[in-house]
């Protein structure tokens, strides 16, 4: 199969071309190594990557003239820190503009799923890929028999199929969520009290998010960037209103099977980033948006860092500032939830150890295992005193 894939790629990749490799938990992993060999022979090929939460793609960085990522993620940490890849700082809602302009690719490589209507769609993630397809960028990929049918959009047109895969080769990366700690549950209980019945909630992955969703006792809709396993629990408890909206799935086979059943019933849960991260839509759709975001650290002015400390490249901007801004400008609430300390050090700092991901004016409420600081309506000095008091308790 590898030889056939390589031959197919050689027909599509031209010298000096820019190639976008689809990301998320369901990337076309089997294309990475053949693409490297084809790129090395063609010469001058540039590579664009998105969010890589799992294992790094098996690419040879020396095969490419340039590698850039518009999101980042743990799987790209080594490439970024070694200087082989450049991380372009951008909130997720800005990636379509980047990919339509200075980083527009000549070809998109993706994992595809065949629906009941016979049409091909994206699988576990849509993100910025649907926009490229709709703008006329050629799409080629592998058709997976084991990826979820989660794409809520219509069938893709003009797609080149390089191979059919199944089993582990075509399955999304599995994410296991650790059991929440006592501190996580304390934070979650305080946050749950802020969520009114009928709200739309946004939450990310991880053990704190799992605790947050488990603590909810009112029916809610999910309008988020990612869908993680807790949404399945929410549905099982009868607290999920309508069909969730996200741009990517991030979880275990339990989540992927659940999303696949919905997708094949005509209720796809994964949409383009132009929809999921549209700040205007998020702030005005019916039902207040409560954005439940975490952070690595927060400074005394309320500025938030989620991208990394001490030079680490493991974090990413993602949709954090999009959802915080949307919740703060509408009738909802922008909540930052974090433990009061990490590895023995306070998470409230005088100066952030990394870039400002989300500005202080898009933070309404801060919740820790020590309590809650409501910053709405406070001046700068009052906000500092409120945060100092929260960490001092």
UniProtKB/TrEMBL annotation:
InterPro entries: AcetylCoA_hyd_C, AcetylCoA_hyd_C_sf, ActCoA_hydro, NagB/RpiA_transferase-like. Residues 251-387 form the Acetyl-CoA hydrolase/transferase C-terminal domain. One of its GO terms (molecular function) is hydrolase activity. Pfam families: AcetylCoA_hyd_C (PF13336). The keyword Hydrolase applies. Coiled coil: none annotated. The keyword Chaperone does not apply. Keywords: Hydrolase. This is Acetyl-CoA hydrolase/transferase C-terminal domain-containing protein.
């Amino acid at each position: 199969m590898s030889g056939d894939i390589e031959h197919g790629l050689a027909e599509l990749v031209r010298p000096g071309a820019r190639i976008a490799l689809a990301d998320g938990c369901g990337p076309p992993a089997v294309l990475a190594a053949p693409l490297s060999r084809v790129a090395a022979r063609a010469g001058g090929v540039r590579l664009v990557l998105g969010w890589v939460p799992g294992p790094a793609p098996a690419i040879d960085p020396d095969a490419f003239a340039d590698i850039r990522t518009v999101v980042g993620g743990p799987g790209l940490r080594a490439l970024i820190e070694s200087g082989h890849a450049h991380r372009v700082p951008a909130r997720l809602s800005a990636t379509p503009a980047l990919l339509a302009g200075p980083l527009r690719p000549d070809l998109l490589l993706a994992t595809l799923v065949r629906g009941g209507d016979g049409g091909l769609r994206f699988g576990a993630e849509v993100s910025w890929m649907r926009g490229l397809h709709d703008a006329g960028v050629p799409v080629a990929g592998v058709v997976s028999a084991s990826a979820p049918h989660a794409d809520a959009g219509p069938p893709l047109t003009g797609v080149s199929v390089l191979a059919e895969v199944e089993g582990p080769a075509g399955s999304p990366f599995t994410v296991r969520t650790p059991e929440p700690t006592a501190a996580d549950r304390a934070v979650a209980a305080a946050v749950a009290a802020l969520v009114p019945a009928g709200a739309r909630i946004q939450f990310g992955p991880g053990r704190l998010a799992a605790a947050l969703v488990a603590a909810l006792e009112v029916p809610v809709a999910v309008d988020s960037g990612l869908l993680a396993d807790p949404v399945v629990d929410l549905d099982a408890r009868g607290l999920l209103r309508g069909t969730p909206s996200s741009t990517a799935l991030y979880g275990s086979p339990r989540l992927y099977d659940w999303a696949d059943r919905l997708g094949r019933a005509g209720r796809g849960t994964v949409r383009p980033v132009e929809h999921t991260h549209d700040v205007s839509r998020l702030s005005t759709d019916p039902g207040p948006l409560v954005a439940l975001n975490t952070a690595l650290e927060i400074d005394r002015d309320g500025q938030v860092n989620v991208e990394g400390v001490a030079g680490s490249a493991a974090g990413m901007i993602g949709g954090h500032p999009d959802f915080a801004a949307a919740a703060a400008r509408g009738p909802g609430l922008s909540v930052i939830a974090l433990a009061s300390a990490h590895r023995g050090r306070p998470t409230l700092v005088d100066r952030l150890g990394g870039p400002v991901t989300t500005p202080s004016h898009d933070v309404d409420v801060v919740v820790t295992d020590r309590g809650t600081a409501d910053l709405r309506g406070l001046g700068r000095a009052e906000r500092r005193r409120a945060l100092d008091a929260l960490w001092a308790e």
